[in-house]
Amino acid sequence: MSMLEILGYCSESGVLAEPVKMELRSWFGNALSPSSMQGMALQKPHGYAGDFEIIDRIYLRYVSSNTELANWDHFYHRQPAPRAVRNRKTYFHELLDSHSARRNPLSVLNIASGPGRCMFEWLSAHTEAPISIDCVELDATAIDYARNLNRPFLDRITFEQKNALRYKPSRTYDLIWAAGIFDYFNDEIFCLMIKRLLPALANGGELVIGNFSNLNPSRAYMELIGEWVLHHRSSDQLSALAAEAGVLPENISVGQEPEGVNLFLHIRS
Ligand SMILES: C[S@@+](CC[C@H](N)C(=O)[O-])C[C@H]1O[C@@H](n2cnc3c(N)ncnc32)[C@H](O)[C@@H]1O
Fold first, then answer.
1. What domains can you pick out in the chain, each with its CATH number?
2. pLDDT tens for each residue of 207-261
3. Relative to the CA of 110, which ligand 1 atom is closest?
4. Does ligand 1 come within 6 angstroms of the Cβ of 137?
5. Among 2, 136, 182, 252, which residue's CB has the most CB atoms within a 10 Å radius?
6. Is residue 135 lining ligand 1, measured as CB closer than 6 Å?
7. pLDDT digit string (tens) for 174-215?
8. Which atom of ligand 1 is nearest to the CA of 165?
9. 47 C-beta closer than 6 A to ligand 1
């Protein structure tokens, strides 16, 4: 077990006082400047954890041009959590592949669409795909960024600036995808959101919700160094929450990406 993990356990059990955490971070010096990946995570230039910009830097394996920070960025990208974030992009692409093989045209609702990199890459590889993707995103800057990135595909993508917590879809979808959002919700809101989204699933449709696993080996690094706190959940907890929202057991399954860090709750209509 690494020193960071030991400190992580201490932190979780409440025996690590805030000044100690601050002292720990101060040891990093310039390595926690916002020009580094881990510093950006901590400084939160957009005001919240997991903003579109850091997520896109994870996707693109951003490395600072400052040689003093470059190795820290390489270190960051080697961690299981950023690897899992990159893998979830592939997970989404595979979902689009399998659903579009069955539905023509395919309708998708993308909740908390962030940088829009996932859509951009899939559409770049499937330029003629008969698909429509409606995005709901709270951050107007994220929407501008994603809209600009996806300029060639705006005939098939719409963006709505809305708080997902207050959003009620006005139509049905073959696939509803929500990654990097439900693990910011407590159990009560998690369930409520499932209940709200279920009626928006088309016949044979699927709701897929990403959530970081309770076995995330990067948790201490994320929480202590980056103050990036999520509701980590096990596969059983995710299934139980779906059941609590009224989904029949036979319509629930849980998948994962190759790191086993990002779990995906699948709910079929
Ligand atoms: C971790 S990113 C995930 C982005 C994208 N789903 C992905 O996986 O690439 C989280 C995104 O959720 C958005 N977000 C956070 N809370 C939200 C809410 N209540 N409603 C809508 N979007 C929200 C943030 O603005 C951010 O762009």
1. 3-78 (no CATH), 82-218+230-268 (3.40.50.150)
2. 999 999 999 999 999 999 999 999 999 999 999 999 999 999 999 999 999 999 9
3. 6
4. yes
5. 182
6. no
7. 999 999 999 999 999 999 999 999 999 999 999 999 999 999
8. 19
9. no
